[in-house]
Amino acid sequence: MLLQFSNSYPVHIDGTCCQSIQHPGCVWDVKFLPNGDLITACSDGVARIWTKTAARFASEEELKAYEDQVSACISKT
User: Three-state DSSP class for 26?
Assistant: First the structure.
């Protein structure tokens, strides 16, 4: 189990940070699923699944709502 008390989760490939995934609260846990997707548990009570498979992408409306949540969180700090 990985605990990361931050509003972002750095994704590492071969020891190099290639991306940082922002969240609207503290990231409590992160797991890789057997299909390669990444699931994060956040202090806002939401588990989010991150995927590279286009068929499982969130809708534009869901992505916009998420971006708004993250922006609101960042502006408070």
Answer: coil
Please give the model's pTM, rounded to 2 decimal places: 0.67
Residues 43, 25 contacting (CB under 8 angstroms): yes
Q: How many CA atoms lie within 13 A of 66 on its CB side?
A: 16
With helix as H, strand as E and coil as C, how does 34-59 read? CCCCEEEEECCCCEEEECCCHHHCCC
More confident: 12 or 24 = 24
3-class DSSP state of 12: strand
Q: How confident is the model at residue 33 (pLDDT cuts 50, 70, 90)?
A: very high
Residue 34 phi, psi dihedral angles, 5° rounding: -55, -30
